[in-house]
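Predict the assembly for these two chains.
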Amino acid sequence: MMHARLAEATLAHRTAREPFVQLQEVTHTYGRLSRTVTALQETNLRIYEGDFVALVGPSGCGKSTILKLITGLISASSGYVLVAGREIGAEPVRVGMAFQNPTMLPWLSLRDNVMLPLKIVPPFRQQYRRKRKGEYRDRVEALLAQVGLAGFSDKYPWQLSGGMLQRASLCRALIHEPQLLMLDEPFGALDQFTREELWGVMQNLWLSRKPTVVLVTHDLKEAAYLANRICVMQARPGRIIDDNEVPFARPRSVAMTYEPNFVALTQRLRELIVAASPAQEATS
Amino acid sequence: MKNQLRRRAYSIALIVGFFLFWEFACVAFGIKDIVLPRPSQIVITLIDRLPAIWPHAVQTLYTTMVGFALGIFFGVLIGVVIGSSGLAYDTAYPLLVGFSSIPKVAVVPIFVLWFGAGTVPAVLTAMILCIFPIVVNVATGLATTEPELEDVMRALKASKLDILVNVGLPRAMPYFFASLKVAITQAFVGTVIAETVASNRGIGNLMMIASSNFDVPLVFAGLLILAALGVALYLIFSFIESRVTGWTRRTDEFAVG
């Protein structure tokens, strides 16, 4: 009951506001002339400030394409992508992004890697020279400590495990206090236990800062654990076929993922995805 | 560690053995000095006539370093321009290959024609010999930067210059330093060629004059000096390389892979 009311309240709150991220009839095709692949077809999506949205679906359904469109790494073939009411590139919104690979720069220490956004992104970059040995450094240390990496900031990427690097990658995505956080399967390459631990880390980071998050994942449990809202996509052509609230109370725990209503949710998502990808039905 | 020591011992033994074999072969087969002097003779000549050889060695070293410095400057400049865009890379590469395949000895007379005999053609020859490895390596280093690393920067809305300074150039550093080791030996070759053809100073010139006087031990003493200078500079740049780009040796578990 409690959950349902909570969901209703957030929904009501939401409709009163402008969406923070908005995709309007967005189509994106890769390749050119005769050899094109439609990754995304006439997709509409509204994401509200402070929300945590997960995109799930079969491979090739355009999940990552949506992330890249919102981040501005690629631009839409047609339709509009608006962030904070403006078109991509014009918006004064700070964006953080974490990828499936940690993509740490191997010649920099963990501290300098995490500090990179402060060197690049305004308004931090203007004060970078002055503050990098003081305020910024403390900030990096504090954030690293929050994800369990205290004392590792002088290490280089090759000295750390995949899980540690992925934690650091989350820190790098968050250090410049982005209003918008894009996570492209950030836990995909990790083992089960590390992944579940990092879900907790991610949840705490979100609860303490409340950025707007878009998470792309293959892992339905992960989506249901972390997100407030799950969009299910189908492949070829990619589009959103289902959009659901996740009613569970926060903070969520790994134990919760074994409760009947949680299992029921992931089960339903799974069926939707299997139905949306006929080619893979036989094997899965 | 033990293995490494053993390898080092082997390589020292090979060097010592080479010179011992040379020495004994000369004695055993009664080879004349004018054909092939013994190593001990060469060293004695070198020590005896060091005051006369020294200014030439300094001249050669000076010419090489100036040519090398110019080569680094222009090499990095051209390398960055070519490597920073795919279009520039594809456009300029054929011309670059064309230029680099010209035998550089052939251009010395042209430099002499333009600038007269002396230090300037030697510096220029050293420069053009060492510039190509630098250009090609810097350009390759930049052009092969992992797109994932660039995406990290692009997601932060970094400018092209930011990406170049923070990702491209550090990423190209190992390539650059690897090219310096090749380039410095090339610069030496260039200097000596030019000195031999058109100069009145430098080791190249010294060896030319010595050989026309049939002073063969002095010719070999010149060679020894060149080898020593070359090895010394190679070691210096290897050392700098290992200090600056130590991270590349640990990239087996490179974060991107």
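The first strand of chain A starts at residue 21 and ends at 30. The longest helix of chain A spans residues 192-209.
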